Amino acid sequence: MNGDGGGLREKLMFMWGYLPGALPQRSPILSPMEVRLPPSAVAGCSWTDVCGGGCGFAMAISSSLLIPLRSLNFCPFSDSGSGNSFHLLPNAGKLITWGSTDDLGQSYVTSGKHGEIPEPFPLPTETSIVKAAAGWAHCVSVTEDGEVYTWGWKECVPSGKVFADPSMGLSLEKDISERQSSFLTEQVSPRSQGSRSSGGTASGMDSRGVGEEGAKRRRVSATKQAAESSSSGDETLSALPCLVTLSPGVRIATVAAGGRHTLALSDIGQVWGWGYGGEGQLGLGSRIRMVSSPHPVPCIDSSPLGKDRSTAPSRGSMGSEGHGFRVPGNYVKEIACGGRHSAVITDAGALLTFGWGLYGQCGQGSTDDELSPVCVSSLLGIRIEHVAAGLWHTVCISADGDVYAFGGNQFGQLGTGADQAETLPRLLDAPGFESMQAQRVSCGARHSAVVTEDGKVFCWGWNKYGQLGLGDVIDRNIPTQVAVDGCVPKNIACGWWHTLLLAEAPT
């Protein structure tokens, strides 16, 4: 999601739903509640973007902060009044995290903070953070220089230079290119959760995902003890922040994080991917289980000229009945990752999907997996501007502000008014919503949210933890307006059990 950091009006952030560490009493926030900047924030500092978060933690980006020295490894200046040492980063975008991931066994390095107070994540860079995303149990961020840092589940972290916090008793830098563990790959891969068979069914998982979460908890409990007993603390479950090694000259503009895979979009419209690809979610044309270094995803053309080229659109596939048709567009302008599927949008507004298709989340009219990027042919002729992906579903917005949804619908996350899955994009036309022009969209695991052009917020889907912000814990199967007073909503980001809203203060 793109934030709205411009303008002079103060940016506010609101949260609703549940974060285990931030809400130790296990009482969900049922209605929007303002989230304050960290106490260390410099006067004039402001929120600039919201990034959702994974299982049990939240992420956002703020402008300049005054950071305690213990969080950074740079030369400090001393605050004589407090006796503490700080480093001032003027106008730097900092990644802010809060909440805990204890319930799923994730370690300190994933969320950065086990508590209710938002704090800057100790990334080893002075460069401004401009984008960030989180999967189930890994995070990825982009600096203004186009560099990518990632951390969390080991299988999600590619080869590269690793940085450690000295307070953890670890060396400052490590090279993990030789430490990719095949044992870990087998123990924590989506296949071990119950994956789709050739007959199009899922094993080990019921329609409401009980098997998925249960298997994950069992896996985590099996590896958590080993992680805690490891002398380095990062040898099994989690990896420390890693500077991703990309090809020379590649500058990344934005990133997306799925269940256990990551996509990165360069400033010339090329998509790169790494992590787990067993259902085709890396778009490489095969069921490759692990990609431990970034690989270009052939969405349109492999030409290095990207969006600067002036040649005619290249060829691409459009499903089993449309191979050989031209994919409209010359480069990719937006990316999204779901649980085990992915979606991209070209500059011409064509939507391409790939990955797991069991619930129709690829929008191709079937439940087949798509191993390579394929145009959603039923949307050709409709210019798609934005896309978001959840655990089993996908939601997109057209240039006219219409919302289309497809995939799993067990909790009403498609917003169609029913609970049947949709294998083709379905236009949302619920009463009171059909005249709205959506502008921003985000998907949590099993809920969805949009911000409209006139500043209204709508949520729908799973609401067990109040993640819809409607004052209760009742699921909704149609878009329902969230009451957010005294501000102008600008951007929204859904986590597993919570939702974040970026807004502007009124004039």
Automatic annotation (TrEMBL):
Superkingdom of this protein's organism: Eukaryota
Residue intervals passing through the bilayer: none
Chain intervals with Low complexity compositional bias: 189-204
Residues annotated as domain RCC1-like: 236-500
Alphabetical keyword list: Repeat
Biased composition (Polar residues): 222-235
Chain spans, region Disordered: 181-235, 299-323
Sequence ranges of the RCC repeats: 93-145, 269-348, 349-400, 401-454, 455-505
Name of the protein described by the UniProt record: RCC1-like domain-containing protein
Species in which this protein is naturally found: Escallonia rubra
